[in-house]
Automatic annotation (TrEMBL):
Domain of life from the UniProt record: Bacteria
Keywords: DNA-binding, Transcription, Transcription regulation
UniProt KW Membrane keyword: no
DNA-binding region: 32-51
Signal peptide region: none
Domain HTH tetR-type residues, every copy: 9-69
Record-given protein name: Helix-turn-helix domain-containing protein
Entries under InterPro entries matching the protein: DesT_TetR_C (IPR054129), Homeodomain-like_sf (IPR009057), HTH-type_TetR-like_transc_reg (IPR050109), HTH_TetR (IPR001647)
Keyword check for Transcription regulation: yes
Length: 184
């Protein structure tokens, strides 16, 4: 199969997009270069022309997915209310659960690249939460919101694996905990 000639930037973007398309069914660490190359209509060796290693490719897909997560959760400034952010976060984890869990476990498990991307994404979500909730951006409130995010993330990951309450109850609990720990 002959691939259409593309610029290097277009081809890299196409390859990352293929990785993103696979996320609902394939955690990022399980993406295979052979499958990505096949879907792109290129050889495996040509993929390595655009990404020197599989780790470089995985890093590009992880960064793109983290950007999409943050953009999705934070939404538009006009629709960024706390309830909307929470709902969009739950929706993301419901849709991309296996990939999200692999991302979190990679970050926690010592993968330096995943940890960096995860930390950057979490800080963007903390920034957005502070702004939406109207809290000052100071060390105390950042730590409280980070702690709330860790709680909410664990709650949602656990709930998507074993729903022991309704979705509305999950959203209400997360909102209540944020209100309580931030003194609102």
């Amino acid at each position: 199969m002959t691939a259409a000639r593309r610029s290097a930037a277009d081809r890299r973007a196409q390859l990352v997009e293929i990785g993103l398309e696979l996320l609902p069914t394939t955690p990022v660490p399980e993406l295979t270069i052979d499958e990505v190359a096949r879907r792109a209509g290129i050889s495996r060796s040509l993929l390595f022309h655009y990404f020197a290693t599989k780790a470089d490719y995985i890093d590009a897909v992880t960064r793109a997915a983290a950007d999409l997560l943050c953009d999705h959760v934070l939404g538009d400034a006009g629709t960024g209310a706390q309830a909307g952010m929470l709902d969009r976060f739950v929706e993301w984890v419901e849709t991309y659960r296996d990939s999200y869990v692999a991302f979190v476990r990679g970050a926690v498990g010592g993968d330096p690249a995943a940890a960096t991307v995860y930390t950057q994404a979490r800080e963007r979500l903390v920034d957005g939460t502070l702004a939406v909730v109207g809290l000052p951006d100071d060390p105390r409130h950042r730590q409280l919101v980070r702690s709330w995010f860790a709680f909410t993330e664990d709650l949602v990951i656990g709930w998507t694996a074993e729903p022991t309450m309704s979705r509305d109850d999950v959203l209400a609990l997360a909102a209540d905990v944020l209100d309580r720990i931030t003194g609102r």
